[in-house]
Amino acid sequence: MMKRRVLSLVLSLSLAAGLVGCAGKAASDSASGKLSDQQILRLTIPYPIKTFDHAVVHNSSTLDILSNTGEGLMRLNQNHQPIPGMASRLTISPDQTVYTFTLRRAEWSDGKPVTAHDFEYAWKRILAPGTHSPSAYLFYPIVNAESYHQGEVKEDKVGIRALDDRTLEVRLKRQVRNFLSLAALTPFLPARKDTIQSQGKSYGKDPTRMVYIGPFTISRVTEDGTVILSKNRRYWDEKNVRLEHVYFFVSNHATRQLNWYNADKIDVTSVEREFAEAYKKSPEFHQLQTATTQYIRFNYKNPFFRNKKIRQAISYALNRGIIIDQLKNAAEPAGGLIPPSMKGYKSSFRQEAVMQAPEQDVDKARQLFNEGLAELGLTKPPFRLIMLNYEDNRKELALEIKKQLQENLGLTLMLNTTSRADKLQLENAGKFDLALSDWAATYPDPAAFLETFTSGHLMNTGKYSDAPFDETMKRAFNSVLIDQQIRYLIQAEKFLIQDDQALVPLYYVTDSYLVKSHVKELIRHPFGPRYTLKWVYILESEESDDK
């Protein structure tokens, strides 16, 4: 009992210190300049948002908004570490499988108190089979969460329980070293049962009818899709929120966004490859190595790609340097699936599991390709294989891949370029042969990447399945010691990439973006929610001073 109480005290103090650090830094920074009378931040989203129900959304733009209108038990600070959100106190059992959260006294935007029952309801709603949530797998470390999601047990068997209005108990199947980071993610937000049930199937369509507990509320969505946030006056930490409004304008055109930025119509914008060089010397230019890897996914329902030599041939046929040159944004050629930003046992996972990107070897590629064709009883490859692609700046990447595979292997690809949402639907329906894919980690753990290739995983759209790989991942998840878990994850990645060529890694993603100099404390995260807006404030710009 003493060990449990001491651990609780240490965690409570350290978490509180992290929170004070953020607030203090924002206050001291504002002293170096005059606050603007207009505390308004302007950003962009690529498409109008169809639903604001956090249980069913999967696109990053909607999650970015909801992570700032909601707040989970934890939130991420400027160092991307979890700090208290709605939780004021945390107790962890000695075996680190039982987390008991005490909620702070807080209100929803309509004045009703936030309770532990709101968290229990929301989490179990995501796991309910009828919700069809793309985020359900994130809860699988919780006792019986996966079994409930698959309809094997009843809801009351899940290890999520409100002990009273302000106490939530979460029971895990095993030790999960990053569970607090998980608890900071948008899918782990609470939700009000009365609001959802009263609105039925229309819930999430009109965000002005929803209730919020985060720093901001959604006050309006215009006819053109612009989403307007307003400061939440009932937010428990309202005194540390400076922004009055946040605008998310709709545009998926890089040139238009850059023109808006240069015309001072928006404050933040991504910088695509064709413009990156021109802005690299600007103090407003930033780059962030994200927890994202770009790769080629195979559809294993196609017998052609079930042949390992065919998959290996495609990897050796590609010149990753030329492919990355299409980006011009400091992307790094990928040898493995897990990016350098992921932590291993004592250092970066990539330092502990060195895996160099393969050099192009056209002769070896052709030899493997011909051997693969012979094993399949073919004299030539299938005609016009479908490759799914994004309609953003990666169109040029797909064209380069198509060109190289045509020249080096005689493969003819037909590109199907579409929006991210439509692409995911096509992948889930199996309507592809290859797909230019990416995976952005939702939490800082190498397993976040590797688990998506286990048999039956929701994100395993290519239907890859291998019993030895699944067993290695199972051993990793069941490992109590972190160093042992990392060793199993290293084995799993080696098998996936070097032994079986289950996918073709291309590059680790680096984001390039511009932020106006008068915007302070905008936190950009490499994983999970992209932006934390809580501590942002706006200084008077030099242009306004001149006037």
UniProtKB/TrEMBL annotation:
Keywords: Peptide transport, Protein transport, Signal, Transport. InterPro entries: Peptide/Ni-bd, SBP_5, SBP_5_dom. Residues 1-22 form the signal peptide. Residues 82-456 form the Solute-binding protein family domain. It is found in: Cell envelope. The keyword Manganese does not apply. GO terms for cellular component: ATP-binding cassette (ABC) transporter complex; cell envelope; periplasmic space. It holds the Pfam family SBP_bac_5. Coiled coil: none annotated. Belongs to the bacterial solute-binding protein 5 family. This is Oligopeptide transport system substrate-binding protein. The lineage of its organism: Bacteria, Bacillati, Bacillota, Bacilli, Bacillales.
